[in-house]
Amino acid sequence: MYWRLSNLYFWFFALLGGLLPYWSLYLEGQGYSYLQIATLMATIQLTKIVAPSVWGHLGDRTGQRVWLVRFGAISGSLFFTGVFLEPGFYGLLLVMLIFTFFWNAVLPLYEVITLRTLGPHRERYGKIRLWGSVGFIGAVALVGGLLEWLPVGYLPYLLLPVFAGIAISAFLLPSERGQRKPPAPRGSLKAIVTHPAVLAFFAMNFLLQVSHGAYYTFFSIHLAQHGYGKLAIGLLWSLGVLAEIGLFLVMHRLSRRFSVRQIVLGALFLTMIRWLLIAELTSVLPILLLAQLLHAVSYGALHAVSVQYVQSFFGKHHHGQGQALYSGLTFGAGGALGAWLSGFLVDGFSTSAAFLGGAAAMALALIISWRGLKAPPELPFAK
């Protein structure tokens, strides 16, 4: 079961590894403006506002999460092929909206499947999830190397085998029985969502993803403007994910030594430093390498804490909806807003200005977390 659970993470994040570092360069090569690039990149996050809630609700109601993961994987792959029609800006926007609506159904549902399969052994989540990081690194390096020899316009063709891997791995999962859950007590979900610590948690993660808008949308363009080639860009993306893997491997030790509050505050501060370094010192390679190593905390540590935070606060009864809210309100709304804001900053000023904006968002997240964030009562390493 370990390899079955790890397999889909590998292929899902391999697609991200081929898409995120190079899609903005592909769009730039197609002649789109910075604001158009920001809008198209934002769709990857935008559909997370709606899609996880829709699919999470269906998963909670039917219990058929494995079947829904398969449906999302196949449908997303089919709709992505609309890219090959070269539909222009508005047509491509529609293609990406539909494709990501189905594709963004996969991960939130799969997180629930994984954690429920692990049961009381939730500390093993990091070792399973790290295979997603391995897939990301492999795709970044392979696609980056190929694009040194091929025009960037070939990128959609290079992604097709990864879509096939996602679909095949989804069908390797064992089917669920599909038992319906009993109706939830009225008001229970509302009581959880309106808890002050949960509100602070969502606000922190929302701002975290706003700050990542410049990174996911313009980091590759920012590096290219400073003279880095496509392979070097891919290796720098890979370095960040390698650091993330290292973090996942030792997260269980860190979480026994430090409280949730300490991990979150430390990670937010280091994320703010990371954006400042990228904004001002990109040309200094040792500093840029250090900034990429900080991806271990800006994504790895905060995501590992957040997934278990959602499970502990929302419980089994509302876990699917809690995971959907986490994905939709933070990665979705926060990521889309961050992408758009970074587009305006890049169009009006520079790519460096977008990263400075990300640092400002982290400063605000630090204040909110300092005042309002508390550990959930059932988190295994809460203090």
TrEMBL record:
**Alphabetized GO MF terms:** lactose binding; lactose:proton symporter activity
Positions of the Major facilitator superfamily (MFS) profile domain = 137-383
Q: Where in the cell is it found?
A: Cell inner membrane
Query: For this UniProt entry, which segments traverse the membrane?
Result: 7-26, 32-55, 67-85, 91-110, 130-149, 155-175, 187-208, 228-251, 258-278, 325-346, 352-373
Q: Which UniProt keywords apply?
A: Cell inner membrane, Cell membrane, Membrane, Transmembrane, Transmembrane helix, Transport
GO cellular component assignments: plasma membrane
Which Pfam family name is an example for this entry?
A: MFS_1_like
The record gives the membrane topology as:
Multi-pass membrane protein
The domain of life for this entry's organism is Bacteria
Q: What is this protein called?
A: MFS transporter
The organism encoding this protein is Marinobacter fuscus
